[in-house]
Structures are given as C-alpha cells and as structure tokens.
Amino acid sequence: MTIPTTSVSGEPASRFLGRPRSMLIGAEWRDAASGASIDVRDPATSETITTVPSADGVDVDLAVQAARAAFESSEWSAARPVDRERWLLRLADLVEAHAPQIAEIESLDNGKPLLIAQRVDVPSAVDFLRYCAGWATKLEGTTVDLSMPGFRRNEFVGYTRREPVGVVGAIIPWNFPLLMAAWKVGPALATGCTVVLKPAEDTPLSALRLAELALEAGLPAGVLNVVTGYGPVAGAALAAHPGIDKIAFTGSTAVGKLIGKAAIENMTRISLELGGKSPVIVLDDADPKVAASGAANAIFFNSGQVCVAGSRLYVQRRVYDAVVEGVSAIAAKMRIGPGLDPKTQLGPLVSEKQLRRVADYVKVGIDEGGTLVAGGQRHGERGWFHQPTILAGLPESARIVQEEIFGPVLVAAPFDDVEEIAALANGTSYGLSASIWSNDLKRVHRLIPRLKAGTIWVNCHGLLDNALPFGGYKQSGIGREMGRAMIDLYTETKSVMMMH
Ligand code: NAI
Ligand code: MG
User: Fold this and answer.
1) Which ligand has the shortest distance to the CA of 201?
2) Which of 28, 59, 182, 382 falls 20 to 30 Å from 141 in CA-CA distance?
3) Average pLDDT along the chain
4) How does pLDDT run across 418-459, given as a tens digit for each residue?
C-alpha cells in the first residue's frame, strides 16, 4: 500500500498554462537571457497555448554551472543513498498526486489522446521514478582478490567503487515527454548525479511541471535544472559544453550522431537512444485476427510517433491477405480527433513539421511504386492530423521501407520462407526492436537470435518494463536504459588497490 504524502490535486491544466512559463536554473525560475521565447502550440488546432523561454548558450552555461555547484555541494554529495531514494519517492508521489493535471498538459502539448497520457505516460513515469528510487540504495562495487606476480595475496586489498558520473546533460524528444524526462532524471538522481534537462521545443511543458514538483519534493536547488530551447541552439550548446560529464539523448539518429561528435571532443560519456524501423513478423501459424490487431496497435499507437513503432509488416504468404485486410479495417475505423476528446483513438502529429514529413513520405512511397491499401491523406484542414496509412507492393530498397517516418504509416510485404525473414527483418540500418507473432516455439526460438535488435517481442509489441534493459543495435543507438544496465550509464567505476 502506498501512503499518499500529498492530497490529490484537482488543479486544472489551465492553472499551469495561464501564463508564460519560465525555466528552472538553480533555485530560480528565469526567462532566457536574450529575452527570446518559443510559442507552445496545441497540435489539434495549431493555436498557441503558452510560451517558454528560448535558451541559448548563455542560459545553458548558467544551468551547467548550477548543476556543477549542486553536484559539489555537501547537501547533495553527502546525502545518503536513502535520502536520494526518499527524494525520488516524494517526486513520484507528487507526480502521481497531480496525475490528472499532468496528463492533460501532456495531451494538450503533444496532441496524444488523454487516455494514453493517463494510462501510459504518467503512470509509467511514476513507476519508473519509484523503480529508480530503489536503485539508490543498491549500488555496489566488488572486492577483488589480486594476483600480481611477486607479491603475497594477503598484502593487498582490491575493490571497486561506483561513483556518480557527474553533471548529466539530458536531451529528450517530444513523443513521450514526461516519460523520457523520467528515464533520464530517475537514474541520474538515483546514482547521485545532477542534471540539466532540455526537453524538445515542441513539448516543453511536462518537464517544467516536473521541475516544479522536484522543488516541492525538497530536492536541493541545482540538482535538476530545466532549460527550454531549440535543438540546434540550446541542445547543441549543452552537448558541446565541457562542463558536463555525460549526455543522455533520445531522438533522431541524425542528431544522435551530431551529439556523439560533439561529446567526444570533451570525452563526455554518451548514451544514445535513436530511431528505428521495427519489423512486425507474422508467421503462418498465427491467428490472423490477433496478429492484425497487434500490428495495428504497433504502428498506430501514439500516431506512430514511437521509436519502437512496428512500421514494417512482414506476413507469411498463407495469412498475408487476412492480416493486411484486418489492419486496414482497423485503420479505416479509427476515430481521429483532438487528444482531449475522449472518443479519440488517433491524435494529431506533434507539429506541422512532422505532418509535412509524414505526408512527404507517403508521396515518396507512392512514387516508389507503392499501392495505398488504407489512408494516405492529411485529415482535415485544421491541426496536424494524418490518416492511418498502409502501403504495399514496395521493393525493400524503397526509402519508405528503409527510413524512419515517425507517423501512422505502415509498409506491408509478404514472405514465403521463414529462412528468408531474418534477412528481410535485418535489412535496414536500424536495430531497435522486432516482434514475432507465432506460437510455434521452435520457429520462434530459432528466429530470436538471428534478429539484430535490442528488444524482441513475441505475440506482443511495444511493451516495456522498468527492469528490462532497453536500447538499440546498429544505428538505433548506444547503451541500454532501464534495468540494472542503466546504472552503467550514470556511474564511473573506480578501482582501488591498497597495500598493507
Ligand atoms: P530531433 O532528434 O531533432 O529531436 C530530439 C531532441 O533533440 C529535441 O530535444 C531537439 O531539440 C534536440 N536536438 C535537435 N537538434 C539538435 C542538435 N543539433 N544538438 C542537440 N540537440 C538537438 O528529432 P525531430 O527533428 O523532432 O524529429 C525528426 C525525426 O527524428 C522524427 O521524424 C523521428 O524519425 C526521429 N525521432 C526519433 C525519436 C525516438 O524516440 N527515437 C524521437 C523523436 C524523433
Ligand atoms: Mg506542442
């Protein structure tokens, strides 16, 4: 049973959105030094709902200094693991207590159906912060028996210590804004790091709300700083800053590479969670109805704006028509609308830029010889909606088969032989995830080791667990978040050898 530390808040999102927001640097809520700001838009209407500061290098530098000072302060560095655990638990409790408001903010800012924000984004962030809280008291080194030639074994003690890596720069995307913030802030605080968090310019609001709640939870000033700003300005300044020790990034592979290059100049540690083009593989023993509903969910959930979206559907010939017809029927019936409308199943895309990207890819797919099986058009004239779309008949080399789109666009293709499917599935530069739909254990177990992907689902797709490592092979990234593996990303190992 959890004992609530705060009463449940009925505070509406409008209380938070009623005035221009500022960003948190140290203990202070500030505007950008330049005075510049960014309009935050509602993707369902394209109207401005509030503004946030547009930080540049000057603001980023202040935030890094604040994070450094906090990292070195005794209030933080001498805090006991159990104190860090308690701060994280309090933060989780506060997010949970304000869940209705935060879900509404997330839905308005990103466009996603409120139900998804309520059932997935906010509770997943709360659970993950609690999972990280538990880690604070479970960080361990090892003692090692030493064998150097010419010395007696009992003259030495060898052991390792886990130390926080230091100041973490976290740059996150707009598809699950609060959850991505939690993925970075949770392990950083659990291990004793401090953070400068830069949310995506399209969805800065829930990170700012999280920062307010962190202060309310009593987290020392400067441990969590949030700077809002554009990627090529604020993000680039953070990635290249010599005062940060680690950069944690989730976003596109192209930007991940820029960040990696900037980081290596300063030997800043990096973890990169990047794009994907994940295959959904349906073997012919699968129930076509179950597979169709799984495949539809794999691509249309969150309007396809999911790094693990199942954007390539490969179905064994015997059940191909049944599965593709099943997905098309689901696509045709999906209710498209604003996130705050309770009937909505498919919300808008996050931005005009993203809508254009998706629409352009659909055009490219048709030019490349693709046949439209479902959708294919922008939906409505207002806001940034796009129909759930399926294309078939494309060569594997087509751009729309190879490149990440990040929208509700699926390419479908049949295959004949299970022996050929691993090569097809592995045939892009990405390797984030894959799903297999089958109950034939022999075929499933033979396929799993042959797929070059960080996560394989069997008879499900897109589910994540806090205790299971998550990350990509190939161009899908470097490092594993979540689970025990995440501790490696936020700590240095120090070896100690002591002669006595
Ligand atoms: P992006 O990679 O530009 O944005 C992600 C984050 O990186 C944002 O906070 C952004 O401000 C920051 N950023 C952008 N340029 C930067 C730079 N030069 N230095 C440092 N930080 C920078 O992604 P974008 O442009 O919003 O979306 C384009 C495509 O990226 C999508 O269509 C999708 O394919 C992919 N993407 C993948 C995500 C994932 O979860 N794997 C999440 C978001 C986008
Ligand atoms: Mg927005």
Assistant:
1) 1
2) 182
3) 96
4) 989 999 999 999 999 999 999 999 999 999 999 999 999 999
Helices 122-136, 99-110: axis angle to 10 degrees equals 120
Residue 252 CA, ligand 1 centroid: distance in Å: 5
Ligand minimally distant from the alpha carbon of residue 235: 1
Amino acid identity of 32?
A: A
Taking a C-beta distance cutoff of 8 angstroms, is the pair 481, 172 a contact?
Answer: no
- C-alpha–C-alpha distance, residues 172 and 191, integer Å: 20
Helix (H, G, I), strand (E, B) or coil at 347: coil
Res 12: pLDDT? 83
* Neighbouring C-beta atoms of residue 65, cutoff 10 Å: 18
Q: Determine whether 48 is exposed, middle or buried from the number of CB atoms within 10 Å of its CB (0-12, 13-18, 19+).
A: exposed
Sign of the dihedral defined by the CA atoms of residues 15, 21, 27, 30, in that order? negative
Distance from first CA to last CA of the chain, Å, rounded?
A: 49
For a pLDDT cut of 70, what percent of the chain falls above it? 98
Question: If we measure between CA atoms, which residue out of 316, 173, 304 comes closest to residue 248?
Answer: 173
Model's pTM, two decimal places?
Answer: 0.97
Q: Please report the sign of the dihedral spanned by the C-alpha atoms of residue 20, residue 21, residue 25, residue 27.
A: positive
At 342 the pLDDT is 95
pLDDT at 137: 98
Spatial contact of 499 and 146, defined as CB atoms under 8 Å apart = no
* Bridge partners (DSSP) listed for residue 52: 38
Q: Is the CB of 258 within 6 Å of ligand 1? A: yes
In the structure, what pLDDT confidence band is assigned to residue 2 with cuts at 50, 70 and 90?
very low
> Where in the sequence numbering do the catalytic residues fall?
273, 307
Closest CA to 195 of 177, 219, 213: 219
How far does residue 43's CA lie from ligand 2's centre (Å)? 6
**Cβ neighbours of residue 260 under 8 Å, at least 6 residues apart?**
270, 272, 478
Question: Are the CB atoms for 249 and 272 separated by under 8 Å?
Answer: yes
